[in-house]
User: Fold this.
Amino acid sequence: MDAIKTKLPFTKSKAILFLTYLALLWFVVVILIIPNINTILFVFRQDGAFTTRAFVRIFSSTRAVNSLRNSFILAPILSVTVGVIGVSLVLITEYFDVKGAKILRAGYMTTLVYGGIILVSGYRFLYGRGGYITNILASIFPNFNIHWFEGFWAVLFVMTFATTGNHMIFLRNAMRSVDFQTIEAAKNLGASPLAILRRVVLPVLTPSLFAVTLFTFITGLGATSAPLLVGGNDFQTINPMIISFSRMSGTRDLAALMALFLGGASILLIVALAQLEKRGHYLSVSKVKTSIVKQKINNPVARVLVHIYAYVLFAIYTAPVILVILFSFTDSATIARRQLSFSSFTLQNYILVFSRPSAYSPIRTSLIFSFIASAAVMVLILVVCRVISKYKNKMSTFLEYAFMIPWLLPPILIALALITTFSLPRWFMMNRVLTGTTVIMVVGYLTIRIPFTLRITRAAFFALDNTLEEAAKNMGAGAFTTFFRIILPIILPSVLAIFALNFNALLQEFDMSVLLYHPLHMPLGVQIQNLTEDAATGDNTAITFVYAVLMMVVSSIVLYVVYGRGTKMSE
Assistant:
């Protein structure tokens, strides 16, 4: 390795560095590169010869073509609806002087503690066939269509309100970069409130808006939970089809090809947005910034309309959460009738979950797997960041870019790549078959959290004061002593925060879990999906609600630890 050659003798430190490079290179090649190459070969190579049979089979299948079309319809429309709603949420809570902004903000941020398949189940319970709102509407209008909350519009509605959490985090932070002096200067020049919003405020949000729009588009392409639960027979997207195809050996090549479509579209979008960002010219803010002061809405009609809009959104966000919590404490008969009654309140649902191993096992499984994967990815990225920050060479540059590969690929493609690669003995894995074991899900969980962990941890490392390490070295401290006694304590708040966020995200992970889980160790997301599909019985629904409440409690505690106690992370 030219990257680690030096003129000095081969010391113990250089031996450790060489082995570290070797281990990281093995991980990149075996986990990040080979599986994806195998996925491509799996699609285009059959019986040792090149073939396009998978293309022919895909495009001759009406269901497959429709799912592809639906995904590419949903993604751009979702990007627009989420963008409009997300920006409006930030303006309501951070820019305009709206009464009850703190309460509104708490309601809008419920998706941060209540997401994935649990959130979709909540909306389905509220608006789906036999849902709480549906029953009320059916009682008022005898000819009301009880299947109204199915298909494209149901999926779009659920996903629009499920994916605005990133706006509430990233755009809210960007809003704090708006310079109030610039706004006041624009007012003095006679600019209207709309002109100030368009010419001063929104340009500051544009870079962050690009990032969250990219994430939203990729989320729309890889939609799974919403199409499965509320899409009905008329609107299924790529991911549910991939899951269906991947369960049968004869159609796994079709699943892999459809996953490649997702990956290719994601990469093209990333490149396009990167070029668009380079061409963009964003308004810079003053070097001496003044914190933004919330703007009053002087027009009385506009003020009333904004408040109505804000509280209607608040009701949409909080209604599923409130009803799920309330119904989790009611008996099965009440859940089946969708009629709340204080006389039916009980703790029996929680007793049932915690007293039956089959009921609490999915919670335990998700907690264990999420903890192991979060800890493993944190250790791995600490090593990577230490290498790329300390050693500036070709190898460290290669590692930095290689560890961002999972960011370009949807989780379901990564899962399929792991299945196609490790379903057979491989010499580089000591001839072990990982498919069907618990190891492969830990690897999958770890892989999808690498880019986020690397980005934030890398920023923490580069913010370190190099003079501290130099001082420790001058005092005779070794590399390990310096890291554990000097560097790690400084970045520990960021490390703990990243670990907590990864743990929180993996608790409700579904897309990858549904393909990689061990039959004896079913994670929570898969269990909820099975309960939802099996039968609409009160017992199943009650258990689902208890799961939802428990996950909300855990996620809320994590968010409090990360944000409520003032932990700060560099971006």
User: Anything to note?
Assistant: The chain has 26 helices and two strands. The beta strands are 45-46, 49-50.
